[in-house]
Write a sequence for this structure.
């Protein structure tokens, strides 16, 4: 086997020492500045070379390092031909939606030749998050990790690892992704699926021309490593495992969990999972692998990305062993894995679950078919919440809200579907049209919200990972079939439920989340499958201001991109 690209632990250690030095002033928050140059670069994968949009010519993009309490200033300069915006996925951006990043929700995009500085204060968060483009499908190549270290002098609530590494899972298309999407839209159908999955931008040796495009992680016998795993794929939930090595889950979406050990993990697009791995096997080379989970009758790129866990001193000629990943449609593993996730819920890291609910919301998730005069067959596939397909505005919703601009959006998004039905019964294939609108839901400041997301069998059932901007939420309940408001709440976990920013709604099932609406602004909520987002499976919450200026949306920055 050809030589692989080894991970440079020395570089990592040096970077870490530099960071520790940078942050070593006790109890003093640092100001970290980053320059993101959005530029096109030729990249070769799978025997194909193509120009891709990158940040600083890197694929994946640079890791953003900070400590809890720091302020980040990230100046994004757009040299590419596309409009650009960057979302800082999972950062709460208190009162500061201007730095959240989704195009036409909290800002208009950064045009070619222009810049915008994202001013982000990290409050009460530590762990692994990530950043990505939030316009068109550009996050196919424009993404990277965010590593938030604990405050100086504060350790992890688990065994201190010897070293750590980022494992960013993604997808690769041989053709220009934006052209692939345009072609699909012309047909009114899904675009062609990806040609490969990747680990840190590399597909691994199971793909053609890819032995040199293989991520390798060198480990020392007897040491413990922290892997920060991110699913940056556009449309695929992924299983991840390392041959011969158990994974101990200690954090999800930058929130500590009660540790548990598993042979594999399941991670949906948008989610992060931190695991501890002990290098306790016979020294050798072991494949790490990522492959999709799909338990619905939907076409998917079922190819396996691989990287290599390589014990120090073992030559590259040793053939790696492949891990046993769960089967493509292993629903039982998916449900069982997610059921094990629990918040740490200690005095230092409490799970402050809202016990009293001010507002009950029930949103159905559906696919549909609408008329389309520009599509070749006259119709197009679409998606909706409560049968409403979201229409993107031409100016940022946050600007329209802040400046009270009329005619941009309404706040009449229904709290529940207007026509209840047997949501997860036999497939429904008639009357699949949806209503179109830029309709939002208004939430009173500091009110407590319970939202039940219900999958439906409109066309087909399918798992949908939903992401809420500006907030974490508690996943208090989940189940298969139709949500029963009389019986299911009795089974809620209100003590130590997992706290996250992105949650998979199970195929043909439901999930119940709770959060306190204490972050004023306009906050996007959408399916993190890029296909479904582009079809309209999204909405936003308008969270009202509190009683004083300290609990109100901050004024917009002077360099906010014009519309």
């Amino acid at each position: 086997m050809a030589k692989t690209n080894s991970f440079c632990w020395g570089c990592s250690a040096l970077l870490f020492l530099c960071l520790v030095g940078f942050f070593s002033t006790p109890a003093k928050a640092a100001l970290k500045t980053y320059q993101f140059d959005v530029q096109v670069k030729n990249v070769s994968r799978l025997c194909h070379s193509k120009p891709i949009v990158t940040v600083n010519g890197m694929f994946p993009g640079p890791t953003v390092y900070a400590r809890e309490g720091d302020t980040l200033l990230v100046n994004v300069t757009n040299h590419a031909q596309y409009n650009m915006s960057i979302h800082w996925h999972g950062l709460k951006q208190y009162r500061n939606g201007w730095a959240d990043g989704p195009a036409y929700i909290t800002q208009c995009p950064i045009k070619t030749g222009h810049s915008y500085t994202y001013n982000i204060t990290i409050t009460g968060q530590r762990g692994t998050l990530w950043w990505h483009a939030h316009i068109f499908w550009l996050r196919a190549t424009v993404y990277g990790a965010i590593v938030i270290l604990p405050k100086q002098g504060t350790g992890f609530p688990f065994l201190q690892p010897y070293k750590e590494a980022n494992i960013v899972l993604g997808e690769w298309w041989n053709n220009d992704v934006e052209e692939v999407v345009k072609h699909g839209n012309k047909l009114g159908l899904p675009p062609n699926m990806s040609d490969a999955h990747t680990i840190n931008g590399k597909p691994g040796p199971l793909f053609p021309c890819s032995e040199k495009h293989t991520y390798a992680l060198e480990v020392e016998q007897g040491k413990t490593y922290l892997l920060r795993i991110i699913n940056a794929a556009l449309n695929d939930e992924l299983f991840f495992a390392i041959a011969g090595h158990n994974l101990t889950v200690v954090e999800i979406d930058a929130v500590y969990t009660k540790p548990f050990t598993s042979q594999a993990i399941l991670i949906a697009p948008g989610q992060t999972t931190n695991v501890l791995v002990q290098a306790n096997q016979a020294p050798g080379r072991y494949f790490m692998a990522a492959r999709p989970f799909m338990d619905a009758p939907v076409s998917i790129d079922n190819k396996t990305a691989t990287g290599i866990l390589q014990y120090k001193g073992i030559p590259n000629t040793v053939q790696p062993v492949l891990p046993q990943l769960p089967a493509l449609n292993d629903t039982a593993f998916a449900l069982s894995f997610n059921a094990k996730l629990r918040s740490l819920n200690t005095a230092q890291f409490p799970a402050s679950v809202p016990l009293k609910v001010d507002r009950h919301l029930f949103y159905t998730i559906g696919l549909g078919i609408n008329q389309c005069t520009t599509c070749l067959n006259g119709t197009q596939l679409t998606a909706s919440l409560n049968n409403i397909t979201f229409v993107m505005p031409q100016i940022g919703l946050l600007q329209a809200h802040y400046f009270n601009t009329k005619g941009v959006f309404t706040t009449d998004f229904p709290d529940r579907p207007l026509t209840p039905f047997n949501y997860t019964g036999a497939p429904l294939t008639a009357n699949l049209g949806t209503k179109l609108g830029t309709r939002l839901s208004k939430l009173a400041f500091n009110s407590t919200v319970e939202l039940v997301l219900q999958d439906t069998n409109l066309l087909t059932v399918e798992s949908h990972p939903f992401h809420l901007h500006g907030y974490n939420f508690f996943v208090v309940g989940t189940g298969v079939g139709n949500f029963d408001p009389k019986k299911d709440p009795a089974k809620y976990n209100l003590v130590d439920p997992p706290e996250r920013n992105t949650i998979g709604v199970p195929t043909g099932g439901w999930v119940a989340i709770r959060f306190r609406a204490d972050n004023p602004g306009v906050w996007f909520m959408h399916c993190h499958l890029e296909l479904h987002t582009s079809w309209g499976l999204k909405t936003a919450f308008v969270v009202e201001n509190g009683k004083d200026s300290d609990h109100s949306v901050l004024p917009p920055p002077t360099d906010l991109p014009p519309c």
